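Most newcomers find our protein records easier to grasp once they have seen one. Nothing more is needed to start thinking about how sequence determines fold. Here is such a record, shown just as it appears in the course material:
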Amino acid sequence: MEKQDKLLTIGQFAALHGINKKTLMWYDQVGLFRPAWIHPENGYRYYSYHQSAVLETILLLRELDVSIDEIRGFMEHRSAASLQKLLEEKMVELDQRIAHLQGLRKTLAHHQQHTKALLTMDLSSLSVVEKPARQLVTVDIDGATSFEKQVELITAQTQKYQLRRLHDAAYGTMISVEALRRGEFDGYTKLFIEPPFPLKKRGLHVQPKGRYIRAFYKGSWERFPEKYREIFAFTQAQGLEPRGYAYEMGINETVVDRIEDYIVQIEVPVEAGEKAC
């Protein structure tokens, strides 16, 4: 009994480390972490306070999603060098997870912003907004590019830039202002992807910072050109000159089933100049 008095019961040891008694029992069953002493008559498990450091290491590794087999292998040959190597590996994995979670948070914020806007927006309004520059991954298309081919192109870029799921990024289409001026309202030349994290790659399209006309369209595609005519009339009245590309992006795909309810956000960069003719 003298030896038992210097030990902690399984309940006391579990409470000391903020875990369940069943966790300690399971660790014992799989040979990962054994009690310091087991009562020969009643089978009760007892732990030494000096085992705490080892258990905390195991709990840390489990929190980092290290497998039981990996931890068992480490415990059988543990040393400062092996711990250093294991922690370095897990820190790299953790940094990758953090980057993914940051990207996921940006995606959620993006959806939240659009959802909040959906509840209050006036679809008939046009406004001038200031936008920062943003990097876009683009793929070239033309009138002969089938929908299946567009999906193939987007999928390839999604994999290339390690986007885990389709909706980890924002997607849209680009059409040049010049094509719109010529009345070529179906003259789309690019699809774009806005990744949720900055990319250090050359050759990306940079949507320039500056002023943009922002408009929204909801309805049949046959009447879509009317929205661009409205935008050009608005810019002319404001003494602004559209330039570059118009960027179109759906903002309510997650909450509608009918194409007639689909809302497209349109952003057209503008600069001060003579009124457009």
Summary: DSSP finds nine helices and twelve strands in the chain.
